[in-house]
């Protein structure tokens, strides 16, 4: 498999965690979202992925974009360890949390949107988008969480949570009002799959941001 990704991209990080958890070896093809006006806009990459976004995964003779679609494909073709619970109610909760983060919080503060709001408004805009989403998320997690987002098994929801908390920290969001989010995030960051997939440890991580 080949993963087209950018070290700092939350969506790419979600997929890297899934690949690490499932023990899938892959090659990284870095796509720099900033350099050369954004390498995602090149003709070559657009031919591969018309959405002009990362990640894209070439696997089993097909190319898949959109992080949750990639994770669900990996889940259906390589089911261990399970990232979607067998119980339909728990599975619905995992998807609900994943969609809230991937569809309701992250897009509002990603690179393409921040470019539109202008340099001087970016920090406030991102903080507002994240706190608004985290207010809902904290409340939901208080009723679904065990050790992780949904019960005591790592799920797709956790793969969405950790990169989003990293974004919150990058945009200097005060996490004090979100004890459940913070606790789960800390527990997850201790796991190897979350460490090896971390933005500070990627082939395209700039030297000054490496860990």
Write up what this structure looks like:
The protein is α+β, with helices and mostly antiparallel strands and 211 residues long. 51% of the residues lie in helices and 8% in strands. Strands 2-1-3-4 form a four-stranded mixed beta sheet, with helices on one face. α1 links the parallel β1 and β2. α1 packs antiparallel against α7 and α4 runs antiparallel to α6 (122-144). It is globular. The model has no long low-confidence stretch (mean pLDDT 97). InterPro entries: Glutathione-S-Trfase_C-like, Glutathione-S-Trfase_C_sf, Glutathione_S-Trfase, Glutathione_S-Trfase_N, GST_C, GST_Zeta, GST_Zeta_C, GST_Zeta_N. It catalyses: RX + glutathione = an S-substituted glutathione + a halide anion + H(+); 4-maleylacetoacetate = 4-fumarylacetoacetate. GO terms for molecular function: glutathione transferase activity; maleylacetoacetate isomerase activity. Keywords: Cytoplasm, Isomerase, Phenylalanine catabolism, Transferase, Tyrosine catabolism. It is found in: Cytoplasm.
